Amino acid sequence: MKTSIILSLLASTFLLTAQGRRSFHEDLSSHDNFIVADGYGPDRWGCSFTNSQVHESSSGTRITIGHDSDLKPYSCGELIYRGEDMGYGVYSIDMIASNVVGHVTSFFLIANEDTEIDIELTGLNNRIGWMNIWHDQKQNPISIDLPFDTSDGWHTYSFEWRRSYVAWSVDGNVVLNRTDIPTSSPSNTNYRLAINSWTQVNPEINIDWAGQFKYPADGRVPQAQFRNIRYRP
Ligand SMILES: *[C@@H]1O[C@H](CO)[C@@H](O)[C@H](O)[C@H]1NC(C)=O
């Protein structure tokens, strides 16, 4: 009796670990393997995630900023990968960032209240990328100068997450490798993988980082584009 309980516990632990460790590729032409966030968003942001702003197409996913939220001045979007318990490995994506001030384009791993590993591009400065580890309620962002404009065409952004380091790459070149900030172990924390695009409107928060969003007066619709999420253990 006891042995069989222990065996089945071992088996389920193994499955959990194995699930988070399988390679995958999502071209983002379909959202079948994602949860499209709808009707919420952090209080400090100027937008609420709304599924009407998330658009799939054969060339990937576009997230726009709109005005159809009941809760906030703007609507924005987020996709969360359905697979849970993401593990160590290499995560990458192609993105075209927004170049509207106050508009953030991002790709990240998140374990609630615990660790986040982020790549964030802001429309305040399209010549840098922010690489961040959020651990123990503290953010540790570092900005990296880039040899291109992040709103001008597809580029590949990735991070390699291991027990003792996180190394970020852009178009296949390592741009930062951090061993100084710990991350919570994936064996006891449920990491999820997500992309989002949101607006910073509060003049008191993150203003030097993202700038303050104002909807473009010229009628253009702010957007961020995403395709090819890849993972390998
Ligand atoms: C990051 O640094 C660690 C520790 O020096 C090293 O073992 C690892 O190979 C580096 N990773 C990359 C991708 O450069």
From TrEMBL:
GO terms for molecular function: hydrolase activity, hydrolyzing O-glycosyl compounds. InterPro entries: Beta-glucanase-like, ConA-like_dom_sf. Residues 1-20 form the signal peptide. The keyword Membrane does not apply. It comes from the Eukaryota. SUPFAM superfamilies: Concanavalin A-like lectins/glucanases. Pfam families: Glyco_hydro_16 (PF00722). Transmembrane segments: none annotated. Residues 1-218 form the GH16 domain. Keywords: Signal. The keyword Transport does not apply. Gene3D superfamilies: 2.60.120.200. One of its GO terms (biological process) is carbohydrate metabolic process. This is GH16 domain-containing protein.
